[in-house]
Automatic annotation (TrEMBL):
Domain of life: Bacteria
Domain FAD dependent oxidoreductase: 3-304
Protein name: FAD dependent oxidoreductase domain-containing protein
């Protein structure tokens, strides 16, 4: 069976590798000149176990189930020697300290109350240390690239999706995240859903020594998170409000002209547009020493979520049959890539079992 996978991010690449290992003829296609070129390389680099989504039971369970599979698939890309903390803001939090601990207990998520020296105790109602790991983006890229090079997967970079691809493959898997609908349209298929596209900035900073190897998330509202950026010695910061420069709901992301030179370019030094000062001002309420941060640069990409999920902040993983020949993958969490591939493999095996060469 010939399988074409469009999108060489972590989901597409993982699917390609595992399907090729299972004996299928796989081509991995991407319009860019390198793998993992967009959101797969620009995120918070946290291997979630569920603590981050206390209002979405589905997302908690999904994160919890998928983290172990990711660790086993990419052990060299998992950083286990950082310490990870979650704090509940003393005000304006959608989740109380009691609700958070009850959630952890209900899902058997490990935590223990422990003060964190970089956090202002007066401004949090709870601070817990959790068993969570980080992702090293450099190691993840190297691991996947090396595996692709040694595999039977045919990697086709600088290649855009087009309708003629449907005649080349028994199955087409679209793993293009923010570009999903653009790929479907290129295949002459009507998009099946709208998404919410958020043009996000992740600021990269140097921080004082007392932050080293510490990850901290403030829940559950318009707050910040700080994580080590792999093993670089720098940190990446996110913010529920200030990270988002633009947002639109529709079939495609709207890219303002002023962001086109910044988008998916890795760390941009001295960016022409940045919310760095807003990040720092907001974070200083919880992290007093954050005012000593040095701005190394910023990274810009589109985060894509389902519309109108504000009540729960749900981040589902969806493997969807568009028609008899095309399947789409949509997920907001890197840790889900292995389990998602397992679902694709099940569909492929079902297709073979039914002996229907053009349907699954």
């Amino acid at each position: 069976m010939r399988i074409g996978i469009i999108g060489a991010g972590v989901f597409g690449a993982t699917a390609a590798l595992r399907l090729a290992k299972a004996g299928y003829d796989v081509e991995l296609i991407d319009r860019n000149d390198r793998i993992l070129s967009c959101a797969s390389s620009i995120n918070q680099y946290r291997l979630h176990r569920g603590h981050h989504y206390p209002r979405s039971l589905e997302t908690i369970q999904s994160c919890k189930e998928s983290a172990g599979a990711f660790e086993r698939e990419y052990p060299d890309a998992v950083i286990k020697d950082n310490t990870h903390y979650y704090c509940i803001s003393a005000k304006d939090s959608l989740t109380s300290a009691e609700q958070f601990t009850k959630m952890c207990d209900a899902f058997r998520l490990h935590y223990r109350e422990e003060p964190l020296d970089i956090v202002s105790r007066d401004n949090v109602s709870l601070c817990v240390r959790v068993s969570e790991y980080a992702i090293d983006p450099v190691a993840l890229y190297s691991t996947i690239y090396d595996r692709l090079r040694r595999s039977t997967v045919k990697l086709m970079l600088n290649t855009s999706a087009e309708r003629s691809m449907l005649s080349r493959y028994d199955l087409v898997v679209v793993a293009a995240y923010a570009g999903t609908n653009a790929v479907l349209e290129a295949l002459d298929i009507s998009p099946v859903r709208s998404y919410q596209y958020e043009l996000c900035e992740k600021i990269v900073v140097k921080l004082p020594q007392n932050f080293i190897r510490k990850s901290a998330v403030i829940l559950d509202g318009p707050f910040t998170c700080i994580d080590p950026l792999g093993r670089s010695g720098n940190f990446v910061m996110g913010h529920v409000v200030h990270a988002i420069h633009t947002s639109n709901i529709g079939l495609h992301p709207i890219i303002p002209d002023e962001f086109k030179s910044l988008l998916n370019r890795g760390i941009v030094k001295n960016p022409s547009i940045t919310n760095f000062s807003k990040f720092i001002e907001s974070a200083s309420e919880f992290f007093p020493d954050i005012r000593k941060a040095e701005h190394v640069g910023s990274m810009y990409t589109f985060r894509t979520v389902l519309p109108n999920q504000e009540a729960t902040d749900s981040r589902p993983t969806i493997v969807e049959r568009v028609n008899d020949q095309v399947v789409t993958i949509f997920s907001g969490k890197i840790g889900n890539c292995v389990q998602t591939t397992d679902k694709i493999l099940e569909l492929v095996q079902e297709k073979e079992k039914n002996k229907e060469p053009s349907s699954i």
